[in-house]
Amino acid sequence: MTERLWGILTDSFPKLLGYGIRVTIPLTVLSFSLALAVALVIALIQYADIKGLRQVCRFYIWIVRGTPLLVQLYLVFYGLPSVGLVLEAFPAAVLVLGFNEGAYMAETIRGALESVSRGQLEAGYCVGLNYLQIMTHIVLPQAFRTAFPALSNSMISMLKETSMAATITVMEMFRQAQVINGRVYESLGLYGEVALIYLIFCTLLSWGQRFGEKKLGAYGGKTR
To answer: Which residue, 33, 50, 119, 175, could crosslink 166 as a Cys pair with Cβ 3.0–4.6 Å?
Structure first.
């Protein structure tokens, strides 16, 4: 490794890591929180088989899963201003990433809900619980244990997908690497650093996932 390249990498690494902590991680957390909220609502509507709304949910899932994330980002950030709706880059990225991943996570949660025996609903009614109490205290806790590994994988995937936000000018870690590379022209080293930082972040999340699975496994059921 040449002295020039080493100097570039040692100078750029803390900058890239800083953007990862200040922008990439918050973007991931906010987007995942939105995705989880959307997914839970969509899954519960489908589980309850609410006529009309269930068809709307299926349509949403069909549209989102059938179109690329990049196209969705462009439609929201570059397309909506033509009809008078202008969003800043960061909020636009949060919305698109959240609603995109929410469609996939909704299917995960729906499958987990349906894995819980319907007989437990009837048992809950028999002891005087209402539907909301049954879902909160009986069905959802069991479903969450089943869905936890898949939802954790979704969060790891979302962390990597935040790099797509660079295409709509969000100054996250990958975008900052592009800016630095535009000055020094060391693509292999700089993008290798970005890959390393993503790997570190994803490894930490994987450790958190394993810890969470062990904790959940101690509360009445082995995670799958």
So the answer is: 175
